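Re-run with default settings, no changes from the original entry. Doing this only to confirm the output is reproducible before filing.
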Amino acid sequence: MIRVIVCDDAALLRRRIVVQLEAESDIDVMAETADGEHAINVSRELAPDVVIVGMRIGLGGPRTAAGIREVVPSAHVVMLTTHEDEIEAVRAIKAGATGFLNRDGYQHAAAVVRAVSA
């Protein structure tokens, strides 16, 4: 099982991603959150394999990614992005992000989760 946490401040998108992932037999959505600091704390408690993080959440996607990787070095962070996030994407990579998922392509979440966890 691939253990996943989903973090984004857009409740509808977060819910869509969770529903997509919960339909997969090899993925366990352990938690969902709207806040970067909460995602870091939950990651510390649950030690997920993958955390999907919105690029523009309150704490900031790159800062959240760095925090998650600090408390769970083995976790893979997938950033939810838009086409306008190129500069932030570079920051996210430097912070430890290992994958990206376009917000408009949330239906591919399971494939991305599998790819980064492999």
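The longest helix spans residues 11-22. The mean pLDDT is 93.
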